[in-house]
């Protein structure tokens, strides 16, 4: 059995670790590229959103490399994503591929169903073995999230251009290659050393921008034109609202192990979106309110074209932005590749929040 | 005399603004880009050089527009700024109390909301180019009307016909339909102006709070029919500034002036008007390093590689010094 899965940012690192440690052979599809997008779009329904198209491209590229078992996430609720695995299965079958597809549905009370699926993939490994493999993968997820957060902070103030991204690339390799917890602990030390050796400028008035929106477009740098890096290069500290660890906590753990944090957060969106609207629509709004309260200078909202939950969120953004006095800019992402347009808007947005911040501080100084 | 130069390389026009140290416009140029930005920039420099007296000294250069990076490589810029900021800066310099800027250019349209001289919100068109200069150009051409007379004729209409403005394709088929039914040209043109304004307000302005003073700029501001349609729809006076057609370039020049005055020691990066007589060559190739197949553009000046861009990973753009 050769297992593969779709790309979503750095998710491939813990997934590979998990399945390999359970003795499965893993085929990691090539990182999403223009080719992935091209073949994905060619075989996808035109009106589907970008996540379906790019992940279908991932699957085709992995099948070409000899994969025979696809692990895909499912879902419930108004977001169409829950149905994508089924659609992709049919498309791939029509294309004549021979494969198994295992859909991991969020375990709303069916936690054992999830374990059963893992057992199938891993050739009847025991619960304990699954737990141990999961533990290492989980530790990698935590470390990756911490790494990404650090990188997004440091990139904005690095003195030597490109230094942070070099260190980041190296760190990803270290985490990816760690075979056990001991090696991972060593990798953590190496990374800390590497990152702390980056020379940083002392910036007192650093701009802070929060990124919110649909999870896939937030996490996959290929589809969002590496927006975190672009903002960093413009001298902006970036914080993302969703990290993989949170998503795993909320979606793959049984309910008694879940934290209460998301529920508390969702309360912030209540005046604008009082109920669950699918995907992260409500969370996006809640996060904007939260960023405003934390004193962020602006928020960027990302969504793939035709994403219903985020369109619902978008419709209340003008109000949220006004009431909480925080500039919000929405980017709708699709197949087009006009990076110039995105860059122009990003630069203008950064100019806007910078001027706003300076004005505010000037007001404070002059006693207005 | 000490001067500052602003260059706005847009999709349809390439504009130059030369200002003195007080920000006063000395000379402006509006040239067609015609798909060849490098040539447009060079011919602009040549025209400026011929027209100007020798005592002109360029102290700083700013570039803006979608070709700002390219322009900066060719002329040597001190400031490279996005067009939204540049337009806002220019507008504030002409009408300091401005609260709303409507800007419609050749390929894009934007709205900029300002309060107390600060940009607080903006948006650019995303859906389609209906309602921008290129579309108006094309329709005027189809009806055999010089674009300069478009507005004048539209204003004569007393009975504008209703045209769908949501999409350029629908708008055109609506216009053809109405013309075949026998509507007068002026009524169709006025209808088109109203449709474009409706489309702009629905797709670009999208419920943003439009407060006076409202400034209308960009090439399309020359069209009095559109200006009138805005006034009727918004119920406010619309101000078209004197240099409406080169506001981006003016903003870039003002930004260059500001940057240079903040840093007195700094010499300008400007290569001089001689840049127009150098040989510029742009080459592109597809990188085969990974499946992204990025298209890399290389700019040569007198056969020397001066800039590279287009790669996602930085493999080429980071290694220019060969």
Automatic annotation (TrEMBL), chain A:
Domain DUF2229 per the UniProt entry, residue ranges: 10-71
Gene3D superfamilies the record matches: 3.40.50.11900
Name of one Pfam family that matches: DUF2229
PANTHER family: BIFUNCTIONAL PROTEIN [INCLUDES 2-HYDROXYACYL-COA DEHYDRATASE (N-TER) AND ITS ACTIVATOR DOMAIN (C_TERM), BIFUNCTIONAL PROTEIN [INCLUDES 2-HYDROXYACYL-COA DEHYDRATASE (N-TER) AND ITS ACTIVATOR DOMAIN (C_TERM)-RELATED
The protein's name: DUF2229 domain-containing protein
Native source organism of the sequence: Fervidicola ferrireducens
From TrEMBL, chain B:
Class in the EC hierarchy, top level: hydrolase
Cofactor: [4Fe-4S] cluster
EC number per UniProt: 3.-.-.-
InterPro entries per record: ATPase_BadF, ATPase_NBD, CoA_E_activase_dom, Dehydratase_Activator_Redct
Upper lineage: Bacteria, Bacillati, Bacillota, Clostridia, Thermosediminibacterales
Keywords assigned by UniProt, alphabetized: Hydrolase, Iron, Iron-sulfur, Metal-binding
NCBIfam families attached to this UniProt entry: CoA_E_activ
Domain ATPase BadF/BadG/BcrA/BcrD type: start-end pairs: 5-256
Stated name of the protein: R-phenyllactate dehydratase activator
GO molecular function per UniProt: hydrolase activity; iron-sulfur cluster binding; metal ion binding
Gene, per the UniProt record: fldI_2
Segments forming a coiled coil: none
């Amino acid at each position: 059995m050769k297992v593969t899965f779709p790309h979503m940012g750095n998710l491939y690192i813990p997934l590979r670790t998990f399945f390999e440690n359970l003795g499965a052979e893993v085929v990691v599809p090539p990182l999403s590229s223009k080719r992935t997008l091209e073949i994905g779009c060619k075989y996808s329904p035109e009106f589907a959103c970008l996540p379906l198209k790019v992940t279908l491209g991932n699957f085709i590229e992995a099948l070409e490399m000899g994969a025979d078992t696809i692990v895909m996430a499912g879902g419930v609720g108004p977001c169409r994503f829950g149905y994508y695995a089924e659609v992709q299965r049919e498309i791939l079958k029509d294309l004549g591929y021979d494969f198994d597809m295992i859909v991991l549905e969020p375990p709303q009370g069916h936690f054992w169903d999830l374990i059963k699926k893992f057992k199938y993939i891993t050739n009847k490994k025991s619960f304990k073995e699954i737990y141990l493999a999961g533990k290492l993968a989980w530790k990698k997820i935590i470390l990756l999230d911490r790494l990404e957060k650090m990188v997004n902070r440091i990139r904005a103030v690095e003195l030597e251009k490109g230094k942070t991204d070099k260190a980041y690339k190296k760190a990803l390799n270290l985490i990816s290659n760690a075979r056990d917890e001991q090696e991972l602990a060593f990798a953590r030390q190496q990374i800390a050393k590497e990152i702390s050796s980056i020379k940083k400028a002392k910036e007192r008035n650093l701009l802070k921008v929060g990124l919110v929106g649909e999870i896939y477009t937030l996490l996959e740098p290929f589809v969002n034109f590496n927006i975190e890096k672009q903002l960093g290069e413009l001298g902006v500290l970036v914080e993302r609202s969703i990290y993989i660890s949170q998503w795993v906590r909320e979606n793959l753990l049984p309910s008694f192990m879940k934290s209460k944090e998301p529920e508390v957060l969702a309360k912030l969106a209540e005046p604008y979106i009082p109920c669950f609207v699918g995907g992260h629509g409500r969370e996006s709004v809640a996060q904007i309110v939260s960023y405003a309260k934390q004193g962020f200078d602006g928020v960027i909202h990302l969504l793939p074209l035709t994403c219903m939950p985020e369109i619902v969120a978008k419709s209340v953004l003008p109000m949220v932005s006004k009431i909480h006095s925080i500039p919000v800019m929405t980017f709708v992402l699709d197949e087009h590749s006009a990076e110039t347009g995105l860059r122009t808007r990003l630069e203008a947005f950064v100019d806007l929040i910078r001027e706003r911040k300076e004005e505010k501080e000037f007001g404070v100084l002059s006693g207005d | 005399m000490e001067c500052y130069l602003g260059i706005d390389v847009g999709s349809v026009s390439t504009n130059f603004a030369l200002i003195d140290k007080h920000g006063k416009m000395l000379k402006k140029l509006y040239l067609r880009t015609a798909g060849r930005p490098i040539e447009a920039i060079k011919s602009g420099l040549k025209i400026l050089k011929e027209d100007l007296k020798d005592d002109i000294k360029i102290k700083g250069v700013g570039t803006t527009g979608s070709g700002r990076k390219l322009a900066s490589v060719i002329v040597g810029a001190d400031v490279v700024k996005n067009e939204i900021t540049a337009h806002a800066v220019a507008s504030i310099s002409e009408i300091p109390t401005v609260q709303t800027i409507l800007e419609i250019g050749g390929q894009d349209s934007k709205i900029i909301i300002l309060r107390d001289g600060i940009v607080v919100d903006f948006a650019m068109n995303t859906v389609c180019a209906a309602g921008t200069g290129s579309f108006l150009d094309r329709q005027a051409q189809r009806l055999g009307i010089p674009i300069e007379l478009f507005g004048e004729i539209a204003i004569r209409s007393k009975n504008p016909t209703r045209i769908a403005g949501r999409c350029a394709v629908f708008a055109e088929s609506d216009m053809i339909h109405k013309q075949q039914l026998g509507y007068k040209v002026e009524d169709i043109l006025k209808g088109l102006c109203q449709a474009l304004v409706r489309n702009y307000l629905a797709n670009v302005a999208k419920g943003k709070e439009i407060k006076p003073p409202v400034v209308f700029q960009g090439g399309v501001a020359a069209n009095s029919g559109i200006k009138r349609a805005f006034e009727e729809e918004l119920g406010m006076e619309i101000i078209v500034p004197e240099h409406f057609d080169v506001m981006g370039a003016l903003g870039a020049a003002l930004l260059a002036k500001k940057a240079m005055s903040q840093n007195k020691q700094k010499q300008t990066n400007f290569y001089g008007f001689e840049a127009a007589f150098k040989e510029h060559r742009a080459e592109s190739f597809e990188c085969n390093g990974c499946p992204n197949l990025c298209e890399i553009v290389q700019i040569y000046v007198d056969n020397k590689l001066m800039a590279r861009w287009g790669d996602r990973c930085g493999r080429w753009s980071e290694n220019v010094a060969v």
